[in-house]
Specification:
Length: 600
């Protein structure tokens, strides 16, 4: 899916406005395959279905690529969850939570030790049980940061403290790492003997801003040595290093990182048995909860029966949609949030494939007009299949509206609909580019493409699932077009374009980000990819910078939904477009999160 399409939106300056008659163009992003490399081979788009089908509508033969049903079939629809097992795990969680809470809030514990414990709680997927306590501890500790770090020369400890403080939006100075440099201004060579310290420095350096050269130097320094350190480390530490090189902790979704970290922590000689047991029990409890929720979602999808009502041009990915819900909301109490995001991603998938792979230009514009009017009677002139798509849109938003009304949050639906309209306008603009062959400049493309990629609307959908926690201030922040969301949108747009470049060009779609950059700047393909990687890294830094600034603006749990949406984007695109082609990494993620419990 143009997962870009799940994650798209940009600032209020975007010139995508009704009426839907702009002459701009569009880049199709189906299917998104491959890593961010111009040299990787791309699969033939026809290999997905191996057949070109035709649909007879209004006397014309319309070719489209027929996609198969989900490879998961009824696997999760027929899954059974033992309620007594759920209750037993919940009881254990209550007992273990009390013990670990005692460790965290002990009046005799050293502050630095507590911060290291907080890092373990985050890594093990347990910190959500203690958010208030963690905030209190870190607030007090940050007031003593100078005294705490004055004589500390352990690389691991300093790096972990830096990572934790910044993760909770305390702007700890990167100058703290100057002590690890020698007289030549470079990081000391002796640091290479400390594998865990080097890994922690690498992780900390990914929380740098645009003005912190020392953290760029730290990334380069650690990258020069971590692969070698992985080869000489114990098997479990080696795997942790390799995972970090693939995707740093800060850029990974919490539950995926925790699933791996639990296995690592179990093999550490100095692990705490209570903490380890709590992590295992908590993960298994979450897994059963996820399976229950997915069963309900799968039944909803089956009852819609869209595969018998629509041509098979859309991706049947309800399980993968639910993984997006987990990525944004992994915590036990966030069932409503997971359902809201998963249904929204499903709707986006259908709309994305409708605009990208099936609808004619006139139909695309007509659907856009219906969305602008937001009236069931507006669809009278739509072809039968688009009536089904528009009705699905209204029904899903109707569900959200009923929930919001019960919570006294009707204003949230209005704001979400407005974001949705912006998203559809961008899709129509892309489609016009595609059909006209009239190429925009790269800058024009990015202005619209950042909206089309869906980060803003995905963030809005996550707010819907947060109940009264996401009040008007959250939507006002969204409407202000904050730099944090702009940066996440740009990053996702660039990743999407890199991943789909060969495939799009192979199908004759020239209005792609890479191609337009090459034309505007006279660059080679290799130079364009290099520039996109550079811009992605800059976007990461801007996101950290702006994330730290939100501390006095919004509750952390609200901002984290945007951060987690960005992480889900990174996970999806890291090795190709995992949503469209979930056979490899994405399938492994699903199995590890939903099928394979951790032995207790």
């Amino acid at each position: 899916m143009k997962l870009a399409t799940v994650f798209n939106v940009r600032g209020s300056q975007v010139h995508v406005r009704p009426p839907l008659s702009s002459s701009r163009v569009r880049v199709s992003s189906f299917p998104r395959t491959l890593t961010f490399s111009s040299t990787t081979k791309h699969a033939n788009p026809l290999s997905v279905s191996r057949a070109l089908s035709f649909d007879i509508q209004e006397g014309t033969r319309r070719p489209f690529l027929e996609l198969p049903p989900s490879s998961w079939g009824n696997h999760f629809l027929s899954a059974s969850v033992n309620e007594s097992e759920v209750e037993a795990l919940a009881k254990q969680i209550d007992q273990l939570k009390a013990k670990v809470g005692g460790m965290l809030m002990s009046p005799t514990g050293e502050t630095k030790e507590k911060i290291c414990l907080i890092y373990q709680l985050i890594s093990l997927g347990l910190s959500y049980h203690f958010e208030n306590e963690i905030e209190e501890i870190l607030k007090d500790a940050f007031g003593e940061i100078e005294e705490m770090t004055a004589d500390e020369d352990d690389l691991y400890t300093i790096s972990v403290m830096f990572w934790v403080f910044r993760t909770y939006r305390h702007h700890m100075s990167s100058d703290v790492f100057e002590r690890f440099k020698g007289d030549d201004g470079k990081f000391k060579k002796c640091l290479v003997n400390d594998a865990k310290g080097m890994l922690s420095l690498y992780e900390a350096a990914h929380l740098g801003t645009t003005t912190e050269d020392i953290l760029d130097e730290a990334v380069d320094f650690t990258l020069d040595h971590l692969e070698g350190l992985a080869k000489g480390a114990s098997p479990h530490l080696s795997r942790l290093i390799q995972n970090a090189l693939f995707l740093p902790h800060h850029q990974n979704i919490p539950i995926l990182f925790s699933r791996e970290f639990i296995s690592f922590y179990a093999k550490e000689k100095d692990h705490n048995e209570t903490l380890l047991k709590f992590a295992k029990v908590n993960f298994n409890y979450l897994q059963l909860l996820y399976k229950q929720e997915l069963k309900t979602l799968a039944k909803w999808w089956k009852d819609l029966d869209l595969r018998s009502k629509l041509p098979h041009y859309f991706r049947d990915r309800i399980v993968e949609c639910y993984i997006f819900g987990i990525g944004v909301f992994f915590e036990a109490q966030c069932s409503q949030g997971r359902a809201a995001v998963a249904k929204f991603i499903k709707l986006f998938t259908i709309l994305d494939d409708t605009y990208d792979r099936y609808a004619s230009l006139d139909e695309a514009i007509s659907l856009g007009d219906c969305v602008e009017r937001w009236d069931p009677e507006a669809m009278d002139n739509l072809p039968p299949y688009l009536k089904i798509v528009f009705r699905l849109t209204l029904d899903i938003f109707g569900e959200y509206e009923r929930e919001a009304r019960l919570e006294g949050r009707s204003y949230s639906i209005h704001e979400m609909i407005e974001e949705f309209k912006r998203f559809i306008r961008a899709n129509v603009a892309f489609r016009k580019w595609e059909d006209s062959g009239e190429l925009p400049s790269f800058d024009e493309y990015m202005e619209v493409g950042d909206v089309e990629v869906g980060i803003y609307i995905t963030t809005a959908s996550s707010f819907i699932g947060m109940g009264n926690m996401a009040e008007k201030e959250a939507y006002e922040w969204l409407k202000s077009r904050p730099k944090l969301i702009d940066a996440a949108s740009t990053k996702t747009r660039l990743m999407n374009d890199m991943t789909g470049f060969k495939d799009d060009m192979g199908r004759g779609y020239e209005a792609t980000g890479i191609n337009l950059y090459m034309k505007q700047h006279g660059a080679t393909e290799e130079e364009a990819f290099r520039e996109f990687r550079k811009r992605i890294r800059v976007s990461d830094k801007i996101m950290v910078e702006e994330f730290l600034k939100t501390k006095d603006v919004l509750p952390r749990q609200i901002v984290m939904r945007l951060i987690n949406a960005d992480r889900m984007s990174a996970v999806t695109y890291r090795m190709g477009e995992g949503y469209t082609h979930p056979e490899d990494n994405f399938k492994h993620y699903i199995t590890s999160l939903l099928d394979d419990p951790i032995p207790l």
